[in-house]
Amino acid sequence: MPIAKWSGNPFWLFQCSLCHLSSLFRAILPPSPFFLVFGCSYAKSKGVNFLMGLSAYLIGANPKNWQIQHNVLHHTYTNIEHADDDIAPRFVMRFTPHQPRKWFHRFQHIYAPLLYGISTIFWVLNKDFTQLYGYYKENLIKKKELRKQMGINAVHKSLYWLIILGLPIMILPFPAWLTILMFLSMHYVTGIILTLVFQTAHVIPDNRFVLQDSQQIEENWVVHQMLTTTNSAMNSKFVTWFTGGLNYQVEHHLFPNICHVHYPKIAPIVRQTAEEYGIPYQAHPPFGAAVADHFRLLRHLGQNNSLEAA
Is 282:249 a contact under the CB 8 Å cutoff? Predict the structure, then answer.
C-alpha cells in the first residue's frame, strides 16, 4: 500500500495506540497473576493458581522455566554470585563487583537501556530453551521433564510468533515493516519497564552482593533477604498497582505466599521489627530515585573494580 494511503488512515494511529497499550499490558501481566501464582499467593485454590499461571504463555514465556529461575534460584539465593541468575553478567553487563570488568563496561550505563528494551525479544526467542537446558545440566530438572518443556516451548512459541506477529502482517492493511516496527516497539517498552522494576530492587548501591563457595547461605536467610533487597515508591498506590506489589520487594521476598494486596499493611510491621533488631530496612521514596541509583551503580561498576564510594 502506498505511504500516502496508510499514513493518513486514522486506523493506523489507532493500531499504534493499541500496540503501545499492549506493551503496558505485557508489562503489567507478569507482576500480577504471573508472579503471584508461582508464589501460590493469587488464590487458595491450586487449580485457580494453575490456570492463572498459564497467562505466562500470553507473553511468550515458559511457566516452568520462570518457576525455577524466580522461585527456586532468585528467591533462595538472592544476589549470590553464580547462584542467582538475575544478576548473571551475560558478558556485556557487569552487575556486581565480583564479576570481571571489561573495557566496554565503562559505557554500560549508556547502552543498558537498549539491552533492557530488547530483553523480552530474546525471552520469546531462545532464553527459555537455553535456560532449561542449563537447569538440566545443573540437575534441577530431569531429562524427561526437559524433553517435555522443550516440546511445549517449540509449540507455544511458534503459536506466539504466528498470532502476535504473523497474523497482523497478513491481515492488517499496512506494510510488513510497519507491523514489525510496532511489534518491536511493543517489546521494547515492555522490556524497559520489566527490567527496571527488577533491577531497582536488587542492583543498586545499598544492596549487598555475595560471593561464597558454599551452597549454604552463610547469613541468616531472613537477614540475607533484607540486605540484598530494596523497596521503592511505597507511598504510590499507582506504582503498587502497576507493578503488582513488586515495589514492596522486601515483603515479596520475606512472604512470597502472601498476596501483594497485603504488603502495604505488612511493611510497617517489617520495618519496625527490623529496627528493633538492628537490621537495615532499605527503601527509596520515589521510583525515579531507585532508577537513578541503579544507573549510578552501573556507571560505577563499569569504571571501578569495587563498590567503594559507589
Answer: no
Q: What is the pTM of this model?
A: 0.84
Among 202, 246, 238, 235, smallest CA distance to 41 is for: 246
Q: How many helices (H) and strands (E) does the chain have?
A: 16, 2
Helix or strand (DSSP H, E) at 231? strand 231-232
Longest Cα separation, the chain: 69
**CA gap 56, 52 in Å, rounded:** 8
Q: Which residues of 169-180 are buried (b: 16+ CB within 10 A; e: fewer)?
A: eeebebeeebbe
Q: Which H helix or E strand runs over 290?
A: helix 287-303
Judging by beta carbons within 10 Å of its beta carbon (0-12, 13-18, 19+), is residue 166 exposed, middle or buried? Answer: middle
Q: Is 96 left (phi over 0), alpha (psi -120 to 50) or beta?
A: beta
Closest Cα partner for 79 from 299, 256, 226, 273? 226
Per-residue pLDDT tens digits for 24-74: 455 444 445 455 444 445 556 666 666 666 667 777 788 888 888 888 899
- Beta-carbon neighbour count of residue 265 at 10 Å? 9
Q: For residue 227, give the nearest of 245, 246, 248, 201 by alpha carbon.
A: 201
**What pLDDT, in 10s, does the model give residues 68-81?**
888 889 999 999 99
Strand partners, 80: 210
* Contact between 38 and 66 (Cβ < 8 Å): yes
- The set of cell numbers assigned to 29 is 501481566
Q: How many residues does the chain have?
A: 310
Q: Does residue 11 contact residue 182 with C-beta atoms inside 8 Å?
A: no
Between CA 67 and CA 264 the distance in angstroms is 25
All residues at 6 or more sequence positions from 256 whose CB lies less than 8 Å from its CB, including other chains? 39, 41, 71, 75
Task: Determine the Cα–Cα distance for residues 43 and 24; give it in Å rounded to an integer.
Answer: 24
